[in-house]
Amino acid sequence: MLSFYFYLLFGIIIITLELATTTFYLLVIGISCVIASFSALILHDWTIPTISAGVLSIVGCFFISRYKPKSAAKGGMLVKHIGQSVEVIEVKQSHVRVLYSGTYWDAKTQNPEQIKIGDHLIITKFSNHELEIAKEIK
Question: What angle do CA 124, 127, 132 make, to 5 degrees?
């Protein structure tokens, strides 16, 4: 009976941790532990629930890794910066500081002398965490 509570509590904790990671692997392991807890309740043993939790976790994680979209496996979300609007915060001779996506970025531009503080520009190029910006075409 103690193994029932152990697997149930462990499964609920793992499922709760899944909310922070969003990988689905912990969800499968947590569900496997919850299923193992019910087998421990029925069988009053710890060996069969342990084996079933392990086998279900391995099989579930295998299927997730096999059918997971390739774009998510390569490194998370793909953010499209080009075409997004930025606001000019500071203008210097060599660069322009802009506010984009809640943070300040140093950006390059073709004509920094034509840009004023408060202008709204668009991102024309993004590479190696550097922005290149230009005036919006209206």
Answer: 35
DSSP, residue by residue, 10-75: HHHHHHHHHHHH--SHHHHHHHHHHHHHHHHHHH--SHHHHHHHHHHHHHHHHHHHHHS-HHHHTT
pTM score, two decimals? 0.50
Q: Which domain holds residue 125?
A: 85-135
Q: Judge whether 21 lies within some domain.
A: yes
| Cα separation, 123 vs 84, whole angstroms | 6
Same-domain check for residues 63 and 97:
no
State residue 81 phi and psi, 5-degree precision. Answer: -90, -35
Residue 40 in domain: yes
What is the distance between the alpha carbons of residues 21 and 29, in angstroms, rounded to a whole number? 13
**63 CA to centre of own chain:** 20
Instruction: Specify whether 58 is located in the same domain as 94.
Output: no
Predicted confidence (pLDDT) per residue in 59-109, tens digit: 999 998 888 765 444 544 445 777 888 888 888 777 788 888 788 888 887
